[in-house]
Amino acid sequence: MTDLAAPEEEDLAAARRRLAAAQGRVVRALVAAGEVPDGFDPARLRAQAASLLAKRRSVVARLRPDAAEAAGPDLAAEFAAYARAREEPPPGYRADADDFAAWLRERGRLPDPPRRRAPWWRRLLP
């Protein structure tokens, strides 16, 4: 019986690897402007990618209103350029928002954050 189980497990493992690779191609097409995988409608995939980008942009704007304000009416174009410049989005919306703010700061669109002052009680110590 163990001789029969080994080939089935190998087949299952190979199928999982193929599925993971196929899923990776779809994700790259959606979030990193990768090629559209065979069997997918390019127009629908582009529409979904645009929708995902708009969702990311709106969440980032809520998390970092300073960045959204700095981008102003160019927010959609700036965020699209930022997203195209990355191979994949960072893990999590907060990281995405902070990375977008840093991207704007590098381009002179967002001022450096104010320096944090020492707590009041530290200023009293000699």
The number of strands is: 0
Low-confidence runs of at least 5 consecutive residues: none
Strand content: under 5%
User: How much is the radius of gyration in Å?
Assistant: 22 Å
- Give the biggest beta sheet: none
Shape: elongated
Average the pLDDT over all residues and give the rounded result. Answer: 90
Q: Helical residue percent?
A: 55-70%
Estimate nothing, just give the exact number of structural domains: 1
> What pattern of helices and strands is seen along the backbone?
HHHHHH
Tell me which oligomeric state these chains represent. Answer: single chain
Structural class: mainly alpha
Distance from N terminus to C terminus (CA atoms, Å) equals: 79 Å
In DSSP terms (H or I, runs of 4 or more residues), the helix count works out at: 6
Describe the structure.
It contains six helices and no strands. Helix 2 (42-63) crosses helix 5. The chain has one domain. By secondary structure, it is mostly helical. The mean pLDDT is 90. The radius of gyration is 22 Å and the shape is elongated. The relative contact order is 0.09.
What's the SSE blueprint?
Layout: H1 2-31, H2 42-63, H3 65-71, H4 75-84, H5 93-106, H6 120-124
Helix pairs in contact: 2-3, 2-5, 3-5
Pfam family, one: SCO6045_C
InterPro entries: SCO6045-like_C (IPR058711)
Protein name: SCO6045-like C-terminal domain-containing protein
